[in-house]
Task: structure prediction
Amino acid sequence: MAKQEKNPKKKEKTQKSTTQKKSKSYRIAVIPGDGTGPEVIREGVKVLEAVGRRFNIKFNFTFFDWGGERYLRTGETIPEGGIEELKKHDAIYLGAIGHPQVKPGILEKEILLRIRFELDQYINLRPVKLYPGVWTPIKDKGPEDIDFVVVRENTEGLYAGGGGFLRKGTPYEVAIQESINTRYGVERCIRFAFEYCRKRNKKKKVTLVGKTNVLTYAWDLWYRVFEEVGKEYPDIEKDYAHVDAVCMWFVKNPEWFDVIVTDNMFGDIITDLGAMIQGGMGIAAGGNINPNGVSMFEPIGGSAPKYTGKNVINPLACICAGMMMLEWLGEGEPAKAIEKAVIKVCRDHLKSLSAGKMGYSTTEVGDLVTKYVEEGVEL
Ligand code: IPM
Ligand code: MN
Result:
């Protein structure tokens, strides 16, 4: 991953700790959550501790039991003062949210989306990177073709909750679901994408993904801002694609992409497709970023209730989320060490990245990554 713009607060901290010689420490809020969340978080924490031992970083983990079980027991999602507690940390590490006994929407909205919104994590950064030796359903494409990043707007659009019912429950019912797009929100997202692209320094191309041919208010705004902000980045190639066409290109020509920027809903959809071409939900990670605040890192897949408690789920996505968290905290070298270990495990060990088909248990995969992190494996 490319170096990112850092929280000025963090920068200060890094500088201070380098002059004091090593032994940095980070406060990490951990929300294991539902289903397989706790199983994958356990492995992620194990790997972070290993990397911490090797690079002399201390992680102070605070665990939060938020999720379906707590909700069913107490009726509470995030307890009072919970968001304030999160703010006392350098980053948040989340497993999964979603419980089969809780009506869809409650936990997602009251935990996951609430954190994204209240901590103003306005970017959802989702790398789509195929590692060597990982199977992709796209024939004739390899790691050199599948390596891009989706910058998904994370606080607005259809997710902002605009709309409502009229005459609910009657035959004349009306349901309105509005997409909220603010100039401010669109601009900061697009600017982030350009900055990120520049630092990533690969193909130097940003593709705006939208639907200008039909959704002519929202995407008119996005397009205008993209053109305007784009002028400040003459070194970066600009492109536009409709979201439906992008679904086609992800499969046919994934090598065309470098950095994609899009709204919340389209970003949600296309990153599931992205996850599949990089080898599946077993490896796909993302970061909910507030460049000036507290960011949250999570595997992008769900809580996988049918695999819960079986020790068969792939923890690599969660481990990669931990890697992104380190990168974001400015710990590039330790992050690289995790990536190398993950690549080695994918290349030399796992039969598949899918739950139950890896040839190893969840714990064993975590142990392998840990071992290679400790050994400092080179590829
Ligand atoms: C994701 C998930 C969430 C989203 C759900 C669980 C609210 O699908 O992180 O992509 O739609 O953003
Ligand atoms: Mn999703």
